[in-house]
Amino acid sequence: MKFIHLSDLHIGKRVNGFSVLEDQKYILDQILMIAEEEMPDGVLIAGDVYDKPVPPAEAVQVFDAFLTGLADRNLPVFVISGNHDSPERLAFGGQLMKDRSVYMAPVYDGHVEPIHMEDRYGSLWVYMLPFIKPAVVRRCWPEEGIETFDDAVRCALGHMTGHKKGTDDRNILIAHQFVTGASCCDSEELSIGGLDQVSADLFDYFDYVAMGHIHGPQKVGRDTLRYSGTPLKYSFSEVNHRKSVTVVELLEKGNVTVNTRPLKPLHDMRELKGSYEELTSRDFYQGTAVDDYLHITLTDEEDILDAIGKLRSIYPNVMKLDYDNKRTREGNVVEAAAKADKPPIVLLEELYRLQNNQPMTGQQADFAGKLMEEIWEGSR
């Protein structure tokens, strides 16, 4: 039995102030085409469908179109909520959608009823565990003494699999948690100090674990405990990620194969570095994807006036601009002035030198002096 594993769609997300909704529509259409080619028996969506608990109407429309596209292809779909989703909103209409084999995980109430599937190798059970916190599980099972995320997931899984099916039955879990050992990036919301981590051995019962929450595609410990990652890059810490969807096939008990299908975005996310003159040279950018989402680092010693505006005339989707020069590399600590009787312009010049590792220009000093005089006169 074959499944496509997705997670962390984050539909409706804005990246550095840019809406990426059109990029999300594009990549979801690409996933529909992959589904047609792979002809899976189901699609697993492991949480963070939306980027916010109350998603904008446009985001809901995009997900509705994607679900409809999967259902029109007669593909069972299994969806859980992640930490960015509202479990109640995502579960709305779940009973009705079952008629089209779209299974939305209900709000966690201490019980998870697996969904049964059958093929020539026998029975397969799909367990759907939405993102859970210790407080949520503690309310359901107060006698269990739950304190940590690890306690909570251990308790939830124990009660899910307490009435085990046949020993040759295959079991899939869809979950959205931070498994110890997973590699993270800047666009994820994780607890300080790793308090939300759970042990990989909690999932030993399952033949395949479709995880969500971590944005980089990866396995944790074993090939069959896997994060599919986001379908798009959502921060510049992900520029080296190779985004994909995971295709998992379960044959007889113990025989599982895992592969990936690469995804090609509408706009890639890249980093460029060089002087303003270099980056604006036609020889440099001609023939490149200038409309990609870019983080540009300028190496000029002097700040370029309205640099981002000028750069966007060539690279319209510059998301972030930094400088890498003597000023930024050699930061000094600004301390209290040793002699408070110095003239204000001298103090300002000293502060400027400390902050920028270079003296003020004559033009800057003249401007600052005139501004101080105007302020002084106006305060009298």
From TrEMBL:
Gene Ontology BP, a term: DNA replication
An example molecular function term from Gene Ontology annotations: endonuclease activity
Keywords: DNA recombination, DNA replication, Endonuclease, Exonuclease, Hydrolase, Nuclease
One Pfam entry name: SbcD_C
Domain Nuclease SbcCD subunit D C-terminal as annotated: residue spans: 266-354
Family: Belongs to the SbcD family.
Quaternary data: Heterodimer of SbcC and SbcD.
Function of the molecule: SbcCD cleaves DNA hairpin structures. These structures can inhibit DNA replication and are intermediates in certain DNA recombination reactions. The complex acts as a 3'->5' double strand exonuclease that can open hairpins. It also has a 5' single-strand endonuclease activity.
Protein name: Nuclease SbcCD subunit D
